[in-house]
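Q: What structure does this chain adopt?
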Amino acid sequence: MELMMILHELSVSKDPRTLSGGANVNTDLIFMDSRRVEKVVEFINESFNRPVRLVEAAQLVGMAETAFSRYFKAKTGTTFVDFLNDIRIGHASRMLIDSTTPIAEVAYGCGFTSITNFNRIFKKRKGIVPTEFRDKHGTPERRIIV
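A:
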């Protein structure tokens, strides 16, 4: 019953905030069609916080890199690297909202090896830089005042 009350409250909210981009992949369709892609998606979700290479994913499902790359794009509609970055940005967004962890630590904790690269990809996906995102979407008690 409480869940229904919460869902109702969200549906009538006058201040809705979209936290994820419009480039969501329908994983239900992927999983129905391909056990291989499901296996890779599970691998990405478990390993997003460290350097992940295309060759690892290809080997995981017993395919050559180029064949896997074409296969993955055909099944998901996005490249392996873009899919990985979307997962990383999703986790980073959650961390920016829920914590006061410094942005550099968020970036490295989500698998980005460069803060510059993180900022560039984050802005490309979300339309704003991480500091603006935190200021806009973070809960007041978690926002860092500088």
